[in-house]
Amino acid sequence: MVKVCQSTIIDAPVDEVWAILRDFNGHDRWHPAIAFSEIEGGETVDAVGSVRHFRLNDGGELREQLLALSDKDRRLSYCLLEAPLPLMGYVASLRLKPVTDTNATFWEWRSEFHPPAHRRDELVRLVTEGIYQAGFAAVRDLLRGRTGSMRVETRPPRTAAPSTSAPPIVSKVPASRAETTRAIVVGRYGGPQELRLGEIALPPPASDEVRIRHTVIGVNFIDVYCRTGFFDLLRLPGVPGMEAAGIIEALGPAVSGFSVGDRVAYACPPVGAYSERRNMAPDLLVRLSGDIPDETAAAGLLKGVTASFLLHDVHAVKRGDIVLIHAAAGGIGQLLVQWACHLGATVIATVSSDDKARIVERLGAHHVIVYSRENFAEAVVRLTAGRGADVAYDAVGNDTFAGSLASLAVRGHLVSFGQASGPVGDWDIGRFASKSLTISRPNYAHYTDTPEKLAPHVTSFFQALRQGVVRIETPTRYDLANAADAHRDLEARRTTGALVLVPQA
Amino acid sequence: MTKVYVSSVIPAPAAEVWKLIRDFNGLPGWAPFVAESRIEQNAQADQIGCIRSFTLKDGGRIRERLLALSDYDLSCSYAILESPMAVENYVATLSLTPVTDGNLTLAEWQAEFDCAPDREAALMNQIGAGVFQTALSALKHRFGR
Question: What pLDDT, on a 0 to 100 scale, did the predictor assign at position B36?
Fold first, then answer.
């Protein structure tokens, strides 16, 4: 973890400087490094949680999320979601204070992040000089260029604090009556070393909660984003994890439909799965039948439910469809390939290497394209005799988006459900008229956040497992205490298939 | 509750300014209106809870209790126990923040207190301009400007 803190005095009244800086989308008007910026999804610039997507003069693209905005303290905090540089876990804040005797402004800009060791000095210098000091100079110039009488109108404050709850941390030995459980606690955002085993308080379940004793806990890449602070789902100190299987141990008095001893699994927020036991609302709990092992549920529920709604809801794949699937050897990719074949589609899969091509061929894909060797869009056109694919499933993002569009048939459907290689950039929808294309950008929560939405996908996934339509590879197991090792392996791409954590008996 | 806030940029590194500010018994060394100061009960000047008793050059006498002192945050808080000013519940904080650009220091001095409504404007001016700004201006002068 490095910390950078820079501050300066700007010779202008504090409200004038704040009017410039509080505009979360206004940095392209003053910062010399930034060419263009926009707020995603039409959010207002002062809505906490809004994301600015901006392009640097050198072409690099970044996304940053507004974490806090205070007109009272003249303070603004944000974090980096995506960047062309390894500024892992970058969280920054700037604040202003009035200098009352000279009617000037004190401006402080600080951040914390995790650079790779060998690039530490370079990145610290870049942030210190290229971003902060250059920003100070640019705002000073901007104000100097204005006439003394010109005032910038300040907007009314509009803030909303994001709310997520975390279990209270017990720092000392708890009182004799209070129960505790072992859990992986993140005390501060950072690298895998921040995943530490500790004892946390475990209050009795609230009246509408159940207590679950976890048997197997799923590890997903979103857990890494929570650990580093990229996503605002984990309040510090807190327990990460959003997927697990286990046994119901206790029930609040208002809970119905579940009994002590029931085998259950879940794949949903709030975080807290990296623990031996936890309390949670039972709404999105899935009951496990005897033929679904805990390990399969913990390793596969999130991916299986995702594959189900992608193939049934977002686009209803039917017999004879031509389906293009990217990253087909990945967790969701393997499920999509197997399931689409079962639905009677012709499956064209893309992968990055020959090893992965062999895996995907074994799963039944009709055509496998190694896209590092061959232009996949041309290959799809050739393989379909010029027709193109009816639907493309693309979680790769930037590297494949344009090729996916080119691969589609007339009235084809591009399902963009991730952006592992970076954001897809700006597209003029007028261009899609040339083939009457449809584009979807589904979000897991919107297909699974109520029992009514979730249940059919759980049923269809479990059915597919039972019938052998899809298979979940045996996951790699780690002791719960060694969650940090699991994250290191996941981030280093050292693993194939799913990772799970197992609490010690 | 009345609030007063005054701030200045001191042309010296924060660590150097803090050496002066940190001494709860050191007002005569830099605040131009203070004649002499002592710590009651033989306590140390950095002992939280100690009381400084000082006389102003105009003869007034003030007793203040040290509430908080942070070498980490470079801040010092205190409460008035007795003074010629008709204020109640008076708590003030003097804090320093480094300005990296030029190696300067932002000094902030703020106070909250209760008083009779008709005295508020006069007291705000007396405390803000007469006490805080006068002392901060002396600090600026001392360090070269």
Answer: 95
